[in-house]
Amino acid sequence: MSGHSKWHNIQGRKNAQDAKRGKIFQKLSREIYMAAKSGGPDPSGNPALRLVMDKARAANMPKDNIQRAIKKAEGGSEEHYDEITYEGYAPGGVAVLVEALTDNKNRTATSVRTAFTRNGGSLGATGSVAYMFDRKGYIVIDRSTTDADEDQMLMDVMDAGADDLQTSDDAYEIYTDAKEFTGVRDALEKAGYKLADAELTMIPQNTTPVPADKKEQFAHLIDALEDDDDVSNVYTAAADED
């Protein structure tokens, strides 16, 4: 985890994601629907629904869209989606995890495999790279939104129950055990901090630099995966670019 700045990568991809806002809302609606259908429509009693609703709000998804997905679940819709994780390697041997939510496993498997093979990667067997990642809670506080210095932030983060704090010129990045994520997030918000990002994610234990001659291919692979309607999240062990 040391030295790995997700925030750097998140900022770097923000404009591209903004251009795909409609597709992102479609994927979030699917996640909200499944969370509400399996755990109930009340986010106060359904942590999974609350998490995805927070994710939707962070993506500036309209409230009407969120409520529509919840009402669809309440209305007894028979739609069903399976959660599937694909594992593989991008060009240069970089480990990749792909999380999908699909109503057609064959379609999604074919699309994901095609994205890998057409862009210099290879799809692996179950368990081939998952062990290289840890499920973590991840929280970002933009330094421009707080007067807290590093010492104060460290004290508040540890008091909230977090595992690690990484500091850059732009942000405080906080990592938590997955089970403690909700409690840490709520404690920091209660302490008055404005959170720029808060999510459960997969963090690589070690990172791999993308060779210079493979960077374009690598970018095309990640774009192809993220463009897939059935793909919810793409995680890589690529080392951060300066």
UniProtKB/TrEMBL annotation:
User: Which parts of the sequence belong to the TACO1/YebC-like second and third domain?
Assistant: 81-236
Q: What is the lineage of its organism?
A: Bacteria, Bacillati, Bacillota, Bacilli, Lactobacillales
Q: What is this protein called?
A: Probable transcriptional regulatory protein L2772_00380
Keyword Nucleotide-binding recorded: no
UniProt cross-references to HAMAP family, sorted A to Z: Transcrip_reg_TACO1
Q: Which domain of life is it from?
A: Bacteria
The UniProt GO MF terms for this protein read:
DNA binding
Origin species: Lactobacillus mulieris
Q: Where is this region: Disordered?
A: 1-21
Positions of the TACO1/YebC-like N-terminal domain: 5-75
